[in-house]
């Protein structure tokens, strides 16, 4: 029978046999899959695993520092790469969603590749691919066909002559979480909502600037922290905020304002393929809306997305 403990035991042994004394590189994203893959590999080969965690400048507020810290606490040999400037400058002036995704995917590979080349004698590229990713990459339906293009470090294995190892590729998400729990990974990491590879870039409709990223990080932080403080976070599959490319009229004192609009989205889902909007309590939404408008300069209107998928997607781009 499959149990998380027996999976850990057999997989660690298999990885030891397969990898021997070889060096392995793995990209960490802060997400559940790559984290569990990293800890499994670390158990098997210790310091022969080098993890690379790239800050693309499009993560949630304080996310990079916090997650890098937890990785170090878990004993992982992890290199944090600050590539914020590269990503932002390559994205400068770009509004088309698919172009943004392509740029982010390309810059990620460039940054990852440069770091990986610094590791002497690396033989393997590890990936946190799980079973649904394997299926997804062979099906071609809409945006999901490009979903993993960022995580999947395509091109790198051939160019660097790396072999690929994917210890989670027969598991479903809930099994990955159970395996993570069995290895003692923090619930804060295991219970995290999914977050898209291109990050806030696809939640800023239109072109991206450092100011817009900073503004959306504040809005998102108030919303997500609010969900956590009110015990709503675990009832939601994914949540986030979108910065809309419109301004709307408001009033402050005797003055009219003309400022930004943000949309909040929270959904329940099992696999992201279909989703329902969450009926968050009105008083919670009221409080979050007030907090955002009072604390985030430049925002004078908050709306809540009440569309289900299909036909609306979870992300707005
Ligand atoms: P949609 O918006 O298609 O999203 O309903 C379904 C799930 O996929 C995530 N998503 C992405 N993940 N790269 C990713 O890694 C992407 O380009 C991308 N686009 C959407 C989305 O956050 C949701 O979990």
UniProtKB/TrEMBL annotation:
<keyword id="KW-0332">GMP biosynthesis</keyword>
<keyword id="KW-0315">Glutamine amidotransferase</keyword>
<keyword id="KW-0547">Nucleotide-binding</keyword>
<dbReference type="GO" id="GO:0003921">
    <property type="term" value="F:GMP synthase activity"/>
</dbReference>
<protein>
    <recommendedName>
        <fullName>GMP synthase [glutamine-hydrolyzing]</fullName>
        <ecNumber>6.3.5.2</ecNumber>
    </recommendedName>
</protein>
<dbReference type="GO" id="GO:0005829">
    <property type="term" value="C:cytosol"/>
</dbReference>
<comment type="pathway">
    <text>Purine metabolism; GMP biosynthesis; GMP from XMP (L-Gln route): step 1/1.</text>
</comment>
<keyword id="KW-0658">Purine biosynthesis</keyword>
<keyword id="KW-0436">Ligase</keyword>
<dbReference type="GO" id="GO:0005524">
    <property type="term" value="F:ATP binding"/>
</dbReference>
<feature type="binding site">
    <location>
        <begin position="29"/>
        <end position="35"/>
    </location>
    <ligand>
        <name>ATP</name>
    </ligand>
</feature>
<feature type="domain" description="GMPS ATP-PPase">
    <location>
        <begin position="2"/>
        <end position="192"/>
    </location>
</feature>
<comment type="function">
    <text>Catalyzes the synthesis of GMP from XMP.</text>
</comment>
<keyword id="KW-0067">ATP-binding</keyword>
<comment type="subunit">
    <text>Homodimer.</text>
</comment>
């Amino acid at each position: 029978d499959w149990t998380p403990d027996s999976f850990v035991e057999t997989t660690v042994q298999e990885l030891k046999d397969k990898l021997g004394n070889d060096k392995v590189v793995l990209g960490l994203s802060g997400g559940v899959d790559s984290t569990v893959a990293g800890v499994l590999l670390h158990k098997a080969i210790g310091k022969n695993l080098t993890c690379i965690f790239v800050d693309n400048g499009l993560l949630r507020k304080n996310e990079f520092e916090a997650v890098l810290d937890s990785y170090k606490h878990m004993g992982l040999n992890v290199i944090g790469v600050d590539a914020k400037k590269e990503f932002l400058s390559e994205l400068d002036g770009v509004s088309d969603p698919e172009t943004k995704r392509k740029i982010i995917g390309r810059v990620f590979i460039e940054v990852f590749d440069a770091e990986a080349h610094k590791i002497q004698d690396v033989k393997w590229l590890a990936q946190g691919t799980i079973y649904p990713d394997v299926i997804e990459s062979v099906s071609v339906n809409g945006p999901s066909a490009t979903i993993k293009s960022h995580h999947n470090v395509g091109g790198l294995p051939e160019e660097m002559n790396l072999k690929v190892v994917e210890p989670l590729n027969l598991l479903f998400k809930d099994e990955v979480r159970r395996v993570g729990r069995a290895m003692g990974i923090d619930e804060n990491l295991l219970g995290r909502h999914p977050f898209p590879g291109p990050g806030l870039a696809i939640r800023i409709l239109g072109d991206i600037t450092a100011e817009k990223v900073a503004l959306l990080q504040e809005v998102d932080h108030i919303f997500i922290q609010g969900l956590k403080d009110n015990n709503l976070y675990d009832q939601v599959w994914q949540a986030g905020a979108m910065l809309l490319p419109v301004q709307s009229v408001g009033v402050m004192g005797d003055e009219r304002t003309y400022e930004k609009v943000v949309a909040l989205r929270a959904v329940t889902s099992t696999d992201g393929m279909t989703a329902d909007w969450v009926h968050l309590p009105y008083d919670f939404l009221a409080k979050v809306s007030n907090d955002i408008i009072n604390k985030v300069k430049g925002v004078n209107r908050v709306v809540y997305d009440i569309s289900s998928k299909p036909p609306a997607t979870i992300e707005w781009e």
